[in-house]
Design brief:
- The protein is an alpha/beta fold.
- It has 2 domains: 4-154, 3-Layer(aba) Sandwich (Rossmann fold), CATH 3.40.50; 159-235, Helicase, Ruva Protein, domain 3, CATH 1.10.8.1080.
- The protein has helices at 10-27, 43-46, 56-65, 84-95, 135-154, 171-185, 189-198, 203-212, 216-225, 230-235; strands spanning 4-8, 34-38, 73-77, 99-104, 117-120, 158-159, 162-163.
- A 5-stranded parallel β-sheet has the order 2-1-3-4-5, sandwiched between helices.
- The radius of gyration is 21 Å and the shape is elongated.
- The mean pLDDT is 92.
- One of its GO terms (molecular function) is carbon-oxygen lyase activity.
- It holds the Pfam family GKRP_SIS_N.
- This is N-acetylmuramic acid 6-phosphate etherase.
Length: 238
């Protein structure tokens, strides 16, 4: 029932915002569920704001503004372990009893911050010395993908290996919804399209309707009892 909040600076911060912004269309999550907090604010997403990463008070303020609490998880993102904005934000989150983690490229033997989980990616020297947007940034993005994907799989947003809670906000995603229903339910294009329309554009509901040959109301009731998990909704005895 809590939120995932990334806090970062520079390349790491931008990657947190990117990962957070991709969750609603991919997994149908509400925008507040996964958030990205960037040192220097929105301006820093498109233009470097020098000194923003050193502003400890702004890191604390970012956490307090979001009313972080025990149900939330705050993940710090930085190539090093010393970024003041990130360290201060994590300290504030711990005082507010949130779970904390740090994704960094600092060797574990040198990591001393007090967090619940430290993910230390040892990527070695950059091709261009000091440019952490290269190997460090790439490695961190892979980890963020793993974190959110695993979390949403556990929340029932995926059935088999299909995104079944995506928000069809573009023609590409509308087509993906149809292809998903076709693949999972083993039906043709027209049948999948009709089922999605009858299900109120819900891929999950359409799949349950087709798998069980049941009306929309029953499919929705099954999904509600199964807390949104398609497999459980299909396999339930009633």
């Amino acid at each position: 029932g809590g939120r995932l909040i990334y806090v970062g600076a520079g390349t790491s911060g931008r990657l947190g915002v990117l990962d957070a912004s991709e969750c609603p269309p991919t997994f149908g999550s509400y925008p507040e569920m996964v958030q990205g907090v960037m040192a220097g604010g929105l301006e820093a997403l498109v233009r470097a704001v020098e000194g923003a990463e050193d502003r400890e008070a702004e890191g604390v303020e970012a956490i307090e503004e979001r009313k972080v609490g025990p149900k939330d998880t705050v993940i710090g993102l930085a190539a090093s372990r010393r970024t003041p904005f990130v360290v201060a934000a994590l300290g504030s989150a711990r005082r507010l009893e949130a779970r904390t983690a740090y994704v960094t490229c600092t060797p574990r033997s040198e990591f001393t911050l007090d967090v619940d989980v430290a993910i230390c990616l040892e990527v070695g020297p950059e091709v261009v010395m000091g440019s952490t947007r290269m190997k460090a940034g790439t490695a961190q993005k892979l980890v963020l993908n793993m974190i959110t994907t695993a979390a949403f799989v556990r929340m029932g947003k995926v059935y088999e290996n299909m995104m079944v809670d995506l928000m069809a906000t573009s023609e590409k995603l509308v087509e993906r919804s149809r292809r998903t229903v076709m693949t999972v339910a083993g039906v043709d294009y027209e049948t999948a399209s009709a089922a999605i329309a009858a299900a109120g554009k819900s891929v999950k509901t359409a799949i349950v309707m087709l798998k069980l040959g049941c009306p929309r109301a029953e499919a929705e009731a099954r999904l509600a009892r199964a807390h949104g998990f398609v497999r459980a909704a299909i396999e339930a005895t009633s």
